[in-house]
Design brief:
The termini are far apart. The protein has about 425 residues and is an alpha+beta fold. It is built from 15 helices and eleven strands.
């Protein structure tokens, strides 16, 4: 018994009945022509057309029932028609199964999903789960956006980590994450997993939820899903932590230290001090070349925005470092920089114990470590801003160097030391 192919209606969630049929690519041709599967997706206002790979002469096609003509007997033509019908039934069955499955999950079925599943079934193309396949597409699209709005390499790495975190969560909970089922219940489980299993701080969770919601907004705008529950997801509030920033005396002490017996640490030190005296992101200051220098200015495009032009005046220290390397600064990855810069500070005996208060869920935890353990490449940028603000340089001037456009984000970099606080207090109340 075969399907009747014309006007078969399947009710999908929140959609009008979905019709599917088969049509010939060239119905008036006297030669064999391809048979297409076709379905109209009302929500997307598009036809989904997919080649079945089967061919038939139009004169042997039943245009009313949209199937090969019935031929009795055991002739080659009869066997061929039965084989074609059997293959077309596979398309009909899979389509019906997918519509019913997504209806039961209360999830939207779209052209992109149907095409992927057909490719997987009939072309034996290995397809990843929709959620993570589309997350990969999202990262790739954002990173390769050459309109000036693309993400940086470091942001790409954050999104990749976020995707891996969600995959780990999926495996831990033994659930399948989809765009359609990512509701408040799943979201709360994800938050609980981040706090209790991954031991993430409030700030880490705040960042990761922000990355996740950016992806979900993208998927919604692409019409890969119509599930917009995530719009009401509340991000855990950020908790201001006590990050390290150096004062000018500390920067000078590091700069003047003799590392001639360890060229590796000398290069790392020079790169770090260059960051402390320019305020640039590591991704920018680690690739400076002579072509970026115009007179007394470093002129580059901000790595994060990819559109903002920065003009940073050279000073005696930054110019000296550039001249030392003939305007070709040492090349090192951010990962190695973060590893080696700790060695620099450890050698200089920056071993004071530092307390850092972290928030895990609703619990405040004090974490103690030595000063050198808390240093990273980003400390340089934070130190530059703190030094400049302590010298009462106007915020707008500093922001023109660093590329910040948000005053709130900019002020998060300012870290007055205990000595700074005492000096300011004594200056006011002499």
């Amino acid at each position: 018994m075969f399907f009747l192919y014309l006007n078969i209606d399947i009710l999908a969630p929140n959609l009008a009945p979905m019709n599917f049929t088969f049509k010939l690519k060239e119905p008036k041709s006297t030669k064999e022509t391809l048979i297409y599967f076709r379905s109209y997706f009302d929500r997307e206002k598009k036809n989904f057309i997919y080649s079945t790979g089967e061919k038939i002469i139009s004169s042997e096609w039943d245009f009313e029932n949209r199937q090969p003509n019935d031929i009795n007997g055991r002739t080659k033509r009869a066997e061929s028609h039965r084989s074609i019908k059997k293959q077309l039934d596979r398309y009909s069955s899979l389509f019906t199964e997918l519509v019913n499955r997504y209806k039961n999950m209360n999830e939207e079925l779209n052209i992109n999903i149907i095409r992927s599943r057909f490719d997987e079934e009939f072309k034996k193309v290995k397809v990843k789960d929709d959620f993570f396949r589309q997350y990969d597409e999202f990262i790739d699209e954002k990173y390769n956006d050459y309109t000036g709005k693309g993400i940086s390499k470091s942001t790409k790495t954050r999104y990749e980590y976020n995707k891996n975190l969600l995959e780990e969560f999926q495996n831990y909970e033994k659930i399948k994450i989809t765009l359609g089922n990512f509701n408040e219940k799943v979201y709360n489980k994800f938050l609980k997993y981040c706090v209790e299993i991954k031991d993430h701080s409030a700030n880490t969770i705040h960042r990761d939820v922000g990355l996740l919601k950016t992806f979900l907004y993208w998927a919604l705008n692409k019409k890969y899903t119509y599930n917009n529950d995530f719009i009401n997801f509340k991000k855990p509030p950020k908790f201001r932590t006590d990050e390290i920033a150096l004062n000018m005396e500390q920067v000078e002490a590091i700069y003047n230290h003799d590392f001639t017996k360890n060229k590796r640490l000398e290069k790392v030190r020079d790169l770090f001090v260059f960051g402390c005296t320019t305020g640039m992101r590591f991704g920018n200051y680690s690739v400076i070349s002579k072509s970026d220098i115009e007179g007394n200015f470093i002129r580059v495009i901000d790595l994060k925005s990819k559109s903002k032009n920065l003009a940073i005046p050279l000073n005696s220290i930054s110019r000296s470092i550039l001249e030392k390397y003939d305007y070709d600064l040492p090349s090192i990855t951010n990962q190695k920089m973060n590893e080696y810069i700790k060695e620099v500070f450890k050698e200089l005996k920056f071993t004071d114990e530092i307390k850092k208060t972290m928030k895990y869920g609703d619990e405040l935890v004090n974490v103690k470590s030595e000063f050198w353990e808390r240093i990273s490449s980003h400390t340089a940028r934070r130190s530059f801003i703190t030094i400049m603000k302590n010298k009462k340089v106007p915020d707008k001037v500093i922001m023109s160097y660093t590329g910040h456009t948000s005053l709130e984000v900019f002020n998060n970099y300012y870290r007055p030391s205990e000595d700074d606080k005492v000096n300011y207090m004594n200056e006011v109340f002499k």
